[in-house]
Amino acid sequence: MLYLIGLGLGPDGISVLGLKILKKCDKIYMEQYTSISQTELNSLKSELKTEIIPLDRKTVEETDLLIRESQKHSVAFLIPGDPLVATTHSSLLAEARKNQTPVQIIHSSSIYSAVAETGLQLYKFGKTTTLPFPDKEYENYKPTSPYETIQSNLQNNSHTLILLDIQVTQNKQNYMTIQEALPILKDLESKLKKKLFTSKTKIVAISHLGQSNQLIKYNTMETLNKTNFGPALHCLIYPAKDLHFQEKELLETYS
Amino acid sequence: MLYLIGLGLGPDGISVLGLKILKKCDKIYMEQYTSISQTELNSLKSELKTEIIPLDRKTVEETDLLIRESQKHSVAFLIPGDPLVATTHSSLLAEARKNQTPVQIIHSSSIYSAVAETGLQLYKFGKTTTLPFPDKEYENYKPTSPYETIQSNLQNNSHTLILLDIQVTQNKQNYMTIQEALPILKDLESKLKKKLFTSKTKIVAISHLGQSNQLIKYNTMETLNKTNFGPALHCLIYPAKDLHFQEKELLETYS
Q1: Considering the entire predicted model, what is its pTM?
Q2: How far is CA A91 from CA A4, A47, B135, B186, in A?
């Protein structure tokens, strides 16, 4: 049996069910270089008798190690947030189902529903976009799709969750911060000129959502740029133009 | 301090953090008539020394009981799923923030990210809609907005999560099932005639997502209508037309 177990949004974010299952598993794997902190990892380790074996993404994506192991043992694979948010892990589920390997997903908290803490109503979120780092190898290639997704969502009076890129290199992960994201968005504005980002535009900037040090700010880009959000994980939300009074009421408390 | 604590999608869905906080709270409230099962409630009660006090929705919405109590005590309010998915609880958060009452949200798993288990990628979901029961008091008034949301999402190549209505009466909650939802959708088709629902249309039907008895089926409405999904909670997904091969691959395993 293969258990894909979500670690949720921060320390002790795993569900009680997840922890119970974890304690009974023969083998426990976790993706290396995930956003989980050392404190969080140590606290989890202290609860378990079985060691947590780190796996690099290449092994997860290019080998059938997890599926092979789970044909003989109870295997847990730990994933930050809710397990299937990343497409890599959906592929793993698809592969397991094709191999008739039983899989159970142990869900946990995710940015996708936790953003309701801003006051913006979940059912009004349109498509999500990820803002990528400019690709230095391809003459600073900057895709315009994030800008276009926001524009299309605005036409449908939908909010846009803007996830910030994670660059995975051999030895580390590089997380885009709000301060890095803002100039990229301004740059897209100067290229596409639909006035999505003006000096008056107020957007939502969030760091460490769901953790004790979380920060939510609703303000102009200039003010957000001067705000100290601490290290990543960060994300942004571009709200719909037409807000319900209840959305406005809560959102304004973060001004 | 007021803690809004998510119970997640099923038994033991609460996070380890949530349970730790709960054990230290002076008072624990829970909304009455929520979707939580008696077994789940008993299992939670057995872990706690403090009793769980049921609250009807009217008291939550129309009084400041929770905010008043949390100015003197550590108060937990238990909510199924992720706490702020329902707009009622966002209003509670807004009210608390206006009253300078400290609030901490303890997130948990939610249908909004758990739907990734179907294989459909989360970032491609557009606006969510809720399919309401026909209103018998108003000559069977049937709003067309769910149909229009699906149509608009299809134009943007987005998936639509279709939540099914919950009717709250004085003494109980009535949950719409898949078998009740399908004829309502067919009825909207015969009224609006955009061919969203034909005999060939395959949609996703889900019951008890995130629980051990969960069922996911991707099929025509006729076949889904003959499938036994058990009692509620149920929901539906209308997938975008243009699916990524990875989405198709996993989705087809539920045919």
Answers
A1: 0.95
A2: 12, 30, 42, 33
Contact criterion met (CB < 8 Å) for B82 and A113: yes
Residues A76-85: pLDDT tens digits? Answer: 999 999 999 9
The reported pLDDT for the residue numbered B134 is 86
Sheet holding A202-207, edge to edge: A129-131, A160-164, A234-238, A202-207, A215-220
Which pair of tokens denotes residue B148?
A: 């229009």
Interchain contact B147–A (C-beta under 8 A): no
- CA–CA distances in Å: residue A145 to residues A75, A130, A133: 38, 9, 13
The whole-angstrom separation of Cα B220 and Cα B188 is 17
A5: three-class secondary structure by DSSP: strand
- Provide, as residue numbers in chain B, all residues whose Cβ is less than 8 Å from the Cβ of A124: 127
Tokens matching residue A172: 């580390």
| A2 vs A76: CA distance, rounded Å | 6
Helix, coil or strand: residue B9: coil
> Chain A contacts of B119, Cβ < 8 Å?
90, 93-94
Q: Is the ipTM of this complex over 0.85?
A: yes
Using the Cβ of A252 and the Cβ atoms of chain B, whether some distance falls under 8 Å is answered with: no
SS3 A51: coil
Helix A16-24 to helix B16-24 angle (10° resolution) is 120
Rg (CA), chain B: 20
DSSP letter for B207, please: E
Amino acid, res. A250: L
- CA quadruple A130, A14, B87, B38: dihedral sign: positive
Q: Alpha-carbon distance B157 to B142, whole Å?
A: 26
Q: What is the pLDDT of residue B138?
A: 66
Considering only CA atoms, which of A212, A233, A213, A215 is closest in space to residue A80?
A: A233
A86 has a chain B CB within 8 A of its CB? no
CA A132 to CA A149: how far, in whole Å? 14
Query: Rounded CA gap, A9 and A12, in Å?
Result: 9
Q: Residue A138's pLDDT band (boundaries 50, 70, 90)?
A: low
Closest CA to B100 of B59, B75, B70, B62: B70
- The mean of the pLDDT values for chain A is 93
| Pairing of β B2-6 and β A234-238 | unpaired
Structure tokens at B56: 């009807």
| Contact residues on chain A for B94, CB-CB shorter than 8 A | 119, 246, 249-250, 253
Q: Which of A15, A125, A246 sits opposite B12 (nearest CB)?
A: A15
* Per-residue pLDDT at A35 exceeds 80: no
Instruction: Give the pLDDT band (50/70/90) at residue A37.
Output: confident
Rounded to the nearest angstrom, the gap between the alpha carbon of residue B15 and the centroid of all alpha carbons in its chain is 18
Mutate to test the interface with B, among A24, A93, A109, A128 (most CBs of B within 10 A): A109
Question: Low-confidence residues of chain B, pLDDT below 50?
Answer: none
